[in-house]
From TrEMBL:
Entries under InterPro entries matching the protein: 4Fe4S-binding_SPASM_dom (IPR023885), Aldolase_TIM (IPR013785), PqqE-like (IPR017200), Radical_SAM_PqqE_MftC-like (IPR050377), rSAM (IPR007197), rSAM_sf (IPR058240)
Keywords, alphabetical: 4Fe-4S, Iron, Iron-sulfur, Metal-binding, S-adenosyl-L-methionine
Signal peptide residues on this chain, from the entry's feature table: none
Cofactor(s) the protein needs: [4Fe-4S] cluster
Protein name (database record): Radical SAM protein, BA_1875 family
Pfam families given in the database record: Radical_SAM, SPASM
SUPFAM superfamilies for the chain: Radical SAM enzymes
GO molecular function: 4 iron, 4 sulfur cluster binding; catalytic activity; metal ion binding
Ranges where the Radical SAM core domain occurs: 5-240
Alphabetical list of Gene3D superfamilies matching this protein: Aldolase class I
Organism domain of life: Archaea
CDD domains per record: Radical_SAM, SPASM_MftC-like
């Protein structure tokens, strides 16, 4: 049994804020060069080395950004994780920096690469704020798969791309993608906030994801309600949006050949997940901006195991109703980041979940 009070399952390290894209939903303002307080190479290596003190099996280290490819020492960081046997994955931007030389280097050194695909051409390029990025991403998908590198596709779910989801699924199955991870919007005070789904839309889309899991391995981010829906099943579910998505999917892919047995880990922000920012500040997740300390002065192990905010987040009895009184309070518990973005309360209820309105 994995003890989430002792160590996380996933450590996200935002290696840099620098990125050449200007995505509409990004929680960070776009900058082309690293910020002056970014962890330097030595500090980054010391941090990566410290992960071994969590003990085996080591947490998975996910190198994110910004764009990880803007770190000139990215290979050095990956090599350090490899040296200690710490599993490492990377989440680069789809730019020319992700070239053949790096992919050839990474193929035997990273557990997986993740790329973002957020709709068909119009919607993907709109969200990423760059024309031609859809084609660039598809080219990279094909190249990475041809190199036999495990590839995960990340997709932000927002109002205007909902009906693109079956078409994205077809692209992924055609290219034999390993995992599809869908991110649900967290309000960041930007114009993209108006693209957030209603509770009924959240319910319908998550039920469709259960149906879609017959075609591909699916994970969700900031939608822990998916675990409730896995438990409930959707045999008798008939939401209109859900039905529209199912019809579109079957028309593109036919009926799924089999129903997967889904086993979801009961993680949430701060429980099995921890985020280290570019300057060493630690947060429960990249979407929950409540600072817990800084690894320049306190070890990540101490922060993760001893911080009172994290201890409160992990105990579902502390959550406010309806999340705290729900049958699925421990396995789901609602998105803590969404509760914070709406109510400035990390223990508040998740306003995306329809059970709070019944």
């Amino acid at each position: 049994m994995y003890n989430y009070n002792k160590k996380p399952l996933l450590i996200f390290y935002e290696t840099t804020k620098a990125c050449d894209l200007q995505c509409r939903h990004c929680r960070a303002s776009s900058i082309s060069e690293p910020l002056p307080d970014e962890l330097n190479t030595k500090e980054s290596l010391d941090f990566i080395r410290s992960i071994k003190y969590f003990g085996k099996p080591y947490p998975v280290l996910i190198l994110t950004g910004g764009d990880v490819m803007k770190r000139k020492d990215i290979k050095t960081l990956i090599d350090e994780a490899n040296y200690y046997g710490i599993p490492v994955s990377i989440s680069p931007a789809a730019t020319d920096l992700l070239d053949d030389d790096f992919l050839n280097y990474a193929r035997n050194r990273v557990a997986s690469i993740s790329l973002s695909l957020d709709g068909l051409k119009e919607n993907h390029d709109w969200l990423r704020n760059k024309n031609g990025l859809f084609e660039k991403t598809i080219d990279l998908v094909k190249k990475i798969k041809n190199m036999n590198i495990k590839l995960q596709i990340n997709t932000l779910v927002y109002k205007r791309n909902i009906m693109d989801l079956p078409y994205i699924l077809k692209i992924l199955t055609d290219n034999k993608i390993d995992v599809w991870e869908l991110f649900f919007l967290i309000r960041t005070g930007r114009g993209i906030d108006q693209e957030d789904l209603s509770p009924q839309e959240y319910e319908d889309v998550n039920h469709w994801l259960l149906f879609a899991s017959g075609y591909i391995n699916i994970r969700t981010v900031e939608s822990p309600m998916f675990r409730r829906i896995i438990d409930q099943g959707n045999k008798n579910y008939s939401g209109k949006l859900y039905s529209d998505l199912v019809r579109s999917t079957i028309s593109l892919l036919g009926e799924p050949e089999k129903r997967r047995i889904l086993r979801s880990v009961n993680t949430r922000d701060g429980k099995g997940i921890i985020f280290v920012s570019y300057n060493g500040d630690v947060y429960p997740s990249g979407f929950l901006p409540v600072s817990l300390g800084n690894i320049r002065s306190t070890s990540l192990i101490s922060i993760y195991q001893e911080n009172s905010v994290l201890q409160a987040l992990r105990d579902s009895k502390n959550l406010k109703a309806p999340c705290g009184t729900c049958y699925w309070s421990d396995s789901c518990g609602g998105s803590r980041a969404r509760a914070y973005s709406y109510f400035h309360d990390i223990l508040g209820y998740d306003p995306a979940c329809i059970t709070g309105y019944l």
